[in-house]
């Protein structure tokens, strides 16, 4: 028995990184997965491999959500889970951040999450209830220099998560957020820096002494999507190797 047998879950940003691992794990746990992304050349073969459905979905575009939901329903008959995982990151000092960059990050991370909740919640309700997991970040609960626009969007995702949890509880929909620290994906290492050098950095920064793995975030998303979290809604879950536990002098 899989933990998601009979469920239909849409995962955004599923072509690589954390979304890819969520799609793989959810499929292995019995879910029918709708893999959504803008990287069609990665997403399509992955969907085939895990027995899911690939849809081209730019989360920042309202029309794309309408089309993706229609395609998913046509294929699987319903949707009862959503993982809003797609996101983008840019590094910049706040006072040097161009307005277009701030707005782009807001549009993908924050507006994309809002559009996802709005498009899919009615489908989950119609399916008799289910779950939404939003991907925030440790920068949703603390600050970090040079990621002002990103941190603002991730703080907003926590606000959306809490409000959605309140409004959707009566419809049988639980809404929670994952808040990863540093996780080894193309986002955190866009230059493809030598894994040894990355390892050295996190050995000193993170109490558990290493960068996180996307598979570990996927397991948290599985917990929040499955029945093991049946009495949990409206909460942020930090997964960061202890980075936010406090200041360490060790
Ligand atoms: P990633 O860059 O490897 O994957 C992100 C995926 O989102 C990609 O497949 C990308 O094509 C897709 N995407 C980007 N813009 C999109 C759009 N407009 N519409 C649809 N898909 C889009 O990064 P990741 O680390 O796997 O990131 C997943 C989520 O985790 C993001 O929300 C990110 O902000 C969050 N996060 C990552 C880390 C980290 O250290 N990697 C830490 C905290 C939070």
From TrEMBL:
The lineage's top-level taxon is: Bacteria
Task: List, alphabetically, the Pfam families matched.
Answer: adh_short_C2 (PF13561)
> What EC number(s) does its UniProt record assign?
1.1.1.47
Q: What are the protein's UniProt keywords?
A: Oxidoreductase
- Top-tier EC class: oxidoreductase
Is Oxidoreductase included in the keywords of this UniProt record? yes
What InterPro entries does the entry give? Answer: NAD(P)-bd_dom_sf, Sc_DH/Rdtase_CS, SDR_fam
The UniProt entry's sequence similarity note says: Belongs to the short-chain dehydrogenases/reductases (SDR) family.
Protein name, entry field: Glucose 1-dehydrogenase
User: Which species is this UniProt entry from?
Assistant: Streptomyces kurssanovii
